[in-house]
Specification:
single chain; 4-stranded antiparallel β-sheet; 114 residues
Length: 114
């Protein structure tokens, strides 16, 4: 998918959908589903099994994580933070960060490019 392409998940286009029901956690894996991808940003749903993690990286854009189920350890510039269901955190652009599931985890990642 190119940066200039627009895609929207048809199951939630113009109708309500329950995010936590859209995917299940898989053993020893991280799974993702793109809900919306536009040149200006993306919305992606993730499900992590306990102990799975996205390794440390940086992004040229701010990234917002909303935890839907479970608990994550989000480390931003070496500072570990616990983010639980119902909470949101913004990971600043160009700052090293990672996300690890402390228990089965579902989260929504929103990235707006500007």
């Amino acid at each position: 998918m190119s940066q200039n392409e627009t895609t929207i998940l048809s199951s939630c286009f113009g109708k309500p959908e329950t995010l936590t029901a859209m995917m299940t956690t898989q053993s020893d894996a991280i799974v993702s589903k793109t809900i919306m991808h536009k040149p200006v940003g993306t919305i992606t749903l993730f499900a992590f099994d306990t102990g799975q993690r996205l390794s440390e990286h940086t992004s040229p854009y701010d990234a917002t994580v909303q935890v839907l189920e479970g608990k994550a350890k989000v480390t931003i510039e070496g500072r570990p933070l616990t983010v639980e269901a119902g909470q949101i955190i913004v990971m600043p652009a160009n700052i090293p960060h990672d996300v690890a599931a402390e228990e089965p985890l579902k989260m929504l990642l929103i990235m707006i490019r500007s």
